[in-house]
TrEMBL record:
Protein name: E3 SUMO-protein ligase NSE2
Gene: Nsmce2
Coiled coil location: none
The keyword Zinc-finger belongs to this UniProt entry's keyword annotation: yes
UniProt cross-references to Pfam families, sorted A to Z: zf-Nse (PF11789)
UniProt entry keywords in alphabetical sequence: Ligase, Metal-binding, Nucleus, Transferase, Ubl conjugation pathway, Zinc, Zinc-finger
Pathway: Protein modification; protein sumoylation
Lineage of origin: Eukaryota, Metazoa, Chordata, Craniata, Vertebrata
Gene3D superfamilies named in the record: Zinc/RING finger domain, C3HC4 (zinc finger) (3.30.40.10)
Record's subcellular location: Nucleus
One example GO MF annotation: SUMO ligase activity
Main location: nucleus
GO CC annotation terms, alphabetical: nucleus; Smc5-Smc6 complex
Amino acid sequence: ISFNAIDSALSSLKNCQSYINSGMDVATQVALDLVESFNDEEDVNSMEKVMLEYATMDRELNHYIKAFEETINQVKREKPENLPDLENLAREKFLEMESKNSDSDLQSNEKYMYFKDQLKEMKEQCKNNFFLSFPILLHHKSDHGNDTIEQIDEDIAVTRSQMNFICPITQMTMKRPVRNKICGHRYEEDAILEMIQTQKQKKRKVRCPKMGCSHLDVKGSDLVPDEAFKRMIDSQNKQ
């Protein structure tokens, strides 16, 4: 039995996943643009609905691909004399997988989780940036009713200290920050990947280069681009 045509079709389906991923990336960028420009929350929520629709399509496509792969492997393993109806066999497996769907599947979609994480971070950074731009809002009244300027300066200093744009490896302002999902620290992408590669050749683990961090095994798979933080750096540079 030749499965070349089926393998080719499955390969095309897998390419469709790249289009779904690209769509989710675009939706994430649009949502960040909306938050950054202080658009209505309703507009931002509409992008979350788009992300969930993409996640639904991704789940369905994954099930469809998996159903056909399992069917092909089953036929190859059993080697029947008469070729069975592959489409019906695959459809049965597909429907079985779809019957077990739950909302938690969509919530755990990697791209959707990244979307939620970046959205939360962008909102926090925009809020901090707002207070830095309008320090008058940070005024505190003393017992005599006068503004406490020292407290204003202290609040601003604390807020700025929370926005450390310096890479702990290069000691320079980051251009392409990535965040470690395990410990939450950020590094310049090229610098941390080079460190991981160098230590891998020596068969050593990489300790998080952020001073005081106890995470002892930084992996490339734990690093995610931090688009929201990059936007904050770009905004700071423009100022």
